[in-house]
Recover the amino acids of this structure.
């Protein structure tokens, strides 16, 4: 089913309530292989596409949820603006052609890139929405202004909900000016622990980093690489790069790389092309200081992982069993999401990290408030 407007979508959801059937919301389908396979009726949200309102001077953009992400990025680039949380197309993880991801699917999955470290996540830039609950009721939340304090902040609740609470048809997002200048500075040969120390030191300095990541030797084909990004106005970028270059990291120094090399580093952290393709892939979120501890306890080889967000995010593509990964991540105050796996693995291992009993009860209550009949409870998660 592909509704063209909110009235059609409301009718579809109301009919599902009456028939006690389940609905699966989908945009471009780039993340279909996340979670267990399910047979719920498909609702294609790409009928809600296009720019509804955009005022570059106000730094606010309102679009249909089914609008392709690439279309939005191209529009913003014409006005030297950007989505500061650096959303990315997850289709690359599953061998799909680029360009199919939609802005609704991206925000509902809470996907943010390397710049999330300093600019916040998708939910931090999500100002308002229109949608339909599982009970078939249309609603509006948030507003088309940055400073809005009216009512509950439902956009932050729905971001990252993976279509389990409501069908979002329209999103209002905060955008930011694109930096006039950007430089990447790299140190080679650091261990994960040394890399974390260096990144933490720089994040606490006046260097004002935009992003910080570490690529182990097994993924770079030679020597490990710790990369930080500095951006802004050219004179400021130059001065802050000098702060980075002055840091002595246990005998190793940061040096600048060219624009092509910089683009390759940050693109690799989005596409994950440096990791083994096709096998299980885990997204592990941790307190940044615990990233090296997790890798050490896991015994991960130098070709099985990438570290982003200054140690707060680890992508792991090794063979370790799910119970071990989740036990280690939970023990360090983090959680692990199964982003990719074969059908048997996805049928037997929940995509999301198990919640503590109190949190699970709260989540269940919130879901019942939005979707009392369980229309969106497809069993996928």
């Amino acid at each position: 089913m592909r509704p063209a407007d909110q009235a059609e979508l409301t009718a579809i959801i109301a009919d599902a309530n009456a028939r006690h059937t389940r609905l699966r919301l989908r945009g471009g389908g780039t993340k279909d292989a996340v979670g267990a396979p399910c047979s719920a009726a498909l609702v294609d949200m790409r009928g809600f596409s296009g720019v509804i309102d955009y005022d570059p001077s106000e730094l606010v953009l309102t679009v249909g949820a089914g609008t392709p992400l690439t279309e939005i990025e191209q529009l913003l680039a014409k006005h030297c603006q950007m989505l500061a949380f650096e959303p990315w197309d997850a289709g690359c993880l599953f061998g799909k052609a680029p360009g199919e991801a939609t802005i609704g699917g991206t925000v509902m999955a809470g996907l943010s890139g390397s710049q999330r470290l300093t600019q916040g996540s998708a939910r931090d830039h999500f100002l308002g929405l229109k949608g339909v609950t599982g009970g078939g009721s249309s609603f509006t939340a948030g507003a088309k202004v940055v400073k809005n304090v009216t009512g509950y902040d439902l956009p932050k609740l729905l971001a990252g909900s993976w279509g389990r609470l409501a069908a979002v048809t329209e999103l209002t997002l905060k955008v930011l000016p694109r930096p006039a200048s950007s430089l990447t500075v790299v140190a080679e040969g650091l261990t994960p622990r040394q890399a974390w120390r260096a990144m933490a030191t720089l994040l606490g300095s006046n260097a004002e980093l935009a992003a910080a990541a570490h690529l182990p030797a097994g993924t770079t084909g030679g020597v490990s690489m710790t990369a930080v990004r500095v951006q802004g106005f050219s004179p400021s970028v130059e001065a802050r790069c000098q702060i980075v270059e002055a840091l002595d990291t246990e005998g190793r120094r940061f040096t600048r790389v060219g624009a092509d090399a910089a683009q390759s580093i940050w693109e690799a952290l989005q596409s994950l092309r440096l990791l083994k393709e096709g096998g299980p892939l885990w997204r592990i979120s941790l307190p940044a200081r615990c990233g090296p501890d997790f890798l050490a306890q896991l015994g991960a080889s130098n070709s099985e992982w990438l570290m982003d967000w200054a140690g707060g995010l680890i992508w792991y593509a090794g063979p370790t069993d799910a119970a071990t990964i989740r036990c280690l991540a939970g023990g360090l105050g983090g959680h692990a999401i199964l982003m990719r796996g074969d059908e048997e693995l996805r049928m037997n291992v929940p995509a999301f990290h198990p919640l503590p009993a109190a949190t699970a009860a709260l989540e269940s209550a919130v879901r019942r408030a939005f979707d009392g009949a369980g229309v969106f409870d497809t069993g996928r998660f």
